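Can't paste images in this forum, so I'm doing it all in text. The chain is below; anyone willing to post the predicted structure tokens underneath?
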Amino acid sequence: MASAAAPLAAEGIAVPSGQPVELMEVIAEEGRAGPVLRYRYLAPEAPGLAYETREADMAHLCDRHALPHARADDGAPARIIVSLAEAPVPFAELDPEVTQVFEAYRIEGDQCRWEAF
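Text version of the structure:
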């Protein structure tokens, strides 16, 4: 696994809900259908949001933040996984005190399309 190379703004990412969101890290890995980029965001208010609101924020982050970043770095990921965590947690670790949610999106042209797991 490796972190994506292109720089990203670490603070103040705007989302539809208005909740504060910051990028924690980007992890690149190879998936069955091709490259996968994991965009991990810190979103302390995410657990208190309605499902629909949280989902809209995640889709927005994929379309407006993650995908443009991947394309600017000449990347062509097959999928982008967006995750929101209420507090920093190392990748692939569980913390029962911290809510973490994630969604996967396949890339179609210039848009992210939600994929059910």
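The mean pLDDT is 89. The first helix runs from residue 51 to 72.
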